[in-house]
């Protein structure tokens, strides 16, 4: 797949299928941190050393076909514009840190974008596998498969007592970070989430915003992941997260049912007001768009809105971000211009969905 294809498709191919519990769990991610033996970590390595690693990856893996994920393509960060990097972040293919801080970074991507291997971020390699819905076990299986595939040609830093060695001590051991992206509007509306979060933190898990550490929980989207890697097996880490996420799913479903039974009129009013704003507004800011999309997504999942698919909102949550808006415009936009284009794009996208043109083979914007 070409760079142009990565940039032009708002929603990654893997996101188009609805996974288990997909009305609440948007995606599951498993990430493995790995480093090369006898090479300084990216934070202290010289630029020449990091560039040499990128060359190794290009020679050993770029264009090579994996038995499950097909051909992988290497994209060098130095060859992208700042806005193109921003688009990669908005699609969750790279971290904000790789986009802005790396002296010489790259990413190795699978054709369906379900595998993204960041090169020279905080560690030499961050192998991440992304799946739709609640699929942590499958994510771990695929990440380990990719880890084995890479280790056939690379020597990773490993200590018999400590496990895999990483730049940050919190990742030492398995080097595993598992996470899920959850849509929790009912828990936010009922204010129950504030009581649940402290308990989650006490269990060794952390709750972050949509783009990970330091980001906001836009559109009622929360990323929940493990904090501890040392002294725990990969299975234990995934099992602990799965247990907490399963309980959160139950709490969210219960909160949605409570809203339907006790505050149905107010809930419908909120959802349809948001729908009306998305369908008719002439300008809308990013934060408001995410909140309105969250409301409408809940309305679709509760079958209060007909004619729209939940995936349209997965797509719009990415497509309406600043990087994508400017990518489609082909130029840098002012804040006001972005707000106007965002509103236009949402209106047209909703109209296409309702008309059925998208399901008849059309619908490209």
TrEMBL record:
* Enzyme type, top EC level: transferase
Q: Which domain of life is it from?
A: Bacteria
Motif RDXXRA motif of the pArg binding pocket involved in allosteric regulation: where in chain:
338-343
Activity regulation summary: Appears to be allosterically activated by the binding of pArg-containing polypeptides to the pArg-binding pocket localized in the C-terminal domain of McsB.
**UniProt catalytic activity:** L-arginyl-[protein] + ATP = N(omega)-phospho-L-arginyl-[protein] + ADP + H(+)
The record's listing under InterPro entries reads:
Arg_Kinase, ATP-guanido_PTrfase, ATP-guanido_PTrfase_AS, ATP-guanido_PTrfase_cat, Gln_synth/guanido_kin_cat_dom
GO cellular component terms, alphabetically, are: extracellular space
Amino acids binding ATP: 27-31, 92, 126, 177-181, 208-213
Which UniProt keywords are given for this protein, alphabetically ordered? Allosteric enzyme, ATP-binding, Kinase, Nucleotide-binding, Transferase
What terms describe the molecular function in GO for this protein? ATP binding; creatine kinase activity; protein arginine kinase activity
- Where in the sequence is the signal peptide annotated? none
**Which CDD domains does the UniProt entry name for this protein?**
bacterial_phosphagen_kinase
* Record GO biological process: phosphocreatine biosynthetic process
Q: State the PROSITE patterns in the record.
A: PHOSPHAGEN_KINASE, PHOSPHAGEN_KINASE_C
Which EC number(s) does the record attach to this protein? 2.7.14.1
Q: What does this protein do?
A: Catalyzes the specific phosphorylation of arginine residues in a large number of proteins. Is part of the bacterial stress response system. Protein arginine phosphorylation has a physiologically important role and is involved in the regulation of many critical cellular processes, such as protein homeostasis, motility, competence, and stringent and stress responses, by regulating gene expression and protein activity.
Membership in a protein family: Belongs to the ATP:guanido phosphotransferase family.
- UniProt name for this protein: Protein-arginine kinase
- The gene it comes from is mcsB
């Amino acid at each position: 797949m070409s760079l142009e294809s990565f940039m032009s498709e708002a929603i990654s191919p893997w996101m188009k299928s609805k996974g288990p519990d997909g009305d609440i769990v948007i995606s599951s991610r498993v990430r493995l941190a790995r480093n090369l033996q006898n090479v300084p970590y990216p934070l202290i390595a010289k630029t020449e050393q990091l560039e040499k690693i990128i060359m190794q990856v290009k020679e050993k893996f770029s264009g090579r076909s994996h038995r499950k994920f097909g051909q992988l393509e290497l994209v060098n960060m130095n060859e992208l514009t700042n806005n193109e990097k921003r688009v990669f972040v908005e699609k969750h293919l790279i971290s904000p840190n790789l986009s802005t801080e790396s002296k010489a970074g790259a990413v190795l991507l699978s054709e369906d974008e379900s595998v993204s291997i960041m090169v020279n971020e905080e560690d030499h390699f961050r192998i991440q596998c992304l799946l739709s819905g609640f699929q942590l076990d499958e994510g771990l299986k695929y990440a380990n498969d990719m880890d084995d595939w890479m280790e056939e040609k690379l020597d990773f830093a490993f200590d018999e007592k400590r496990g895999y060695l990483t730049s940050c001590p919190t990742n030492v051991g398995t080097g595993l970070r598992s996470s899920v992206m959850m849509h929790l509007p009912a828990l936010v509306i009922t204010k129950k989430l504030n009581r649940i979060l402290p308990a989650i933190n006490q269990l060794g898990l952390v709750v972050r915003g949509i783009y990970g550490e330091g980001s906001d929980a836009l559109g009622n989207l929360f990323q929940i992941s493990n904090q501890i890697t040392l002294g725990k097996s990969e299975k234990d880490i995934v099992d602990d997260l799965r247990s907490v996420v399963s309980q959160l799913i139950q709490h969210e479903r219960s909160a949605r049912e409570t809203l339907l039974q006790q505050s149905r009129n107010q809930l419908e009013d909120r959802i349809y007001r948001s729908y009306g704003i998305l369908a008719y507004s002439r300008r809308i800011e990013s934060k408001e768009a995410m909140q309105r999309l969250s409301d409408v997504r809940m309305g679709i999942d509760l079958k209060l809105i007909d004619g729209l698919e939940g995936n349209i909102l997965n797509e719009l949550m990415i497509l309406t971000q600043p990087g994508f808006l400017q990518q489609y415009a082909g130029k840098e936009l002012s804040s006001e211009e972005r707000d106007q284009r965002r509103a236009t794009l949402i209106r047209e996208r909703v109209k296409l969905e309702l008309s059925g043109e998208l399901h008849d083979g059309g619908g490209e914007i």
